[in-house]
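Entry: Pyrroline-5-carboxylate reductase
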Amino acid sequence: MKMTLAIAFIGGGNMAQAMGRGIVTAKGSGETIYVMDRNPETLEKWQGWGATTGLAPSATLSECKVWILAVKPQNLKEVCESIKPYLKADTLIISVAAGISMASMQQWLGHERIIRTMPNTPALVGMGMTGMFASSVVSGEDIALAEETLSYMGGVVKVDQESLIDAVTALSGSGPAYIYLFIESLIAGATKMGLTEEQAKQMAVATVAGAAKMVETTGETPAKLRENVSSKGGTTLAALGVFYERGLPKIVEDAMVAAARRAGELSKELG
Ligand SMILES: NC(=O)C1=CN([C@@H]2O[C@H](COP(=O)(O)OP(=O)(O)OC[C@H]3O[C@@H](n4cnc5c(N)ncnc54)[C@H](OP(=O)(O)O)[C@@H]3O)[C@@H](O)[C@H]2O)C=CC1
Ligand SMILES: O=C(O)[C@@H]1CCC=N1
């Protein structure tokens, strides 16, 4: 027997699929999920996970208590206007859109029960991180429901000011891309030194994952763990010297500021 629909993804692309996959893995099936996306090829993947799908807004949306808004910020206003007729008073909206303010979504939807979140794509493997902000009109029950939904994808951190969602975007939302660039660079450096692509990838991935796990589990600061690797007069200090000389910490800070600034620009341009 088909299970009752519970969650609707509005937009079924990259971020929604990462989140959906987290739910499917945790629940064993996508039968409680409804996905609305205008691309039939995108929907095929969801159908393979057991989800119900639709190409355009329909009454099926009203069957779902939680709606996850997962279209690009540029598409959000038109999408909100198209789904608005199917909203019920108790529908809980979770937005994952970068830069779009709570006030704009409340206005476009004529609805107050909205939670703003910033997830990341490692949700796909249950190792996501989501920052969330709920306004004072959202009940404790709805916040708990949002946290439960998001916990299928990994960790959840609540922030108490909406503006901090831009900082979350600059750290964990966009962050996987920074780490992928670092991994790409490690692989490129190692293959130039003669390791095969496969060997380099295996070592780069294990190094990044191992270092992150050390920070998570040892209770040591990242700075102390870095010092533990850095033998006096050794190889690590030779490498770190280049990173400092070229200003890596400042480069990272500037990059994060650029991401947060872009979120602010999206807000000004789109709502
Ligand atoms: N990707 C990431 O790592 C992260 C993304 N986000 C946020 O997630 C949101 C989605 O991003 P992402 O998944 O990368 O984007 P995608 O483009 O991969 O997915 C959005 C999907 O929604 C569809 N869509 C757009 N408009 C409509 C419409 N009117 N009706 C039906 N379907 C529609 C798109 O179709 P089409 O392609 O035809 O436009 C596309 O399939 C963004 O707001 C982004 O800020 C947040 C955190 C991380
Ligand atoms: O690049 C973007 O705008 C989205 C938001 C965070 C990650 N991807």
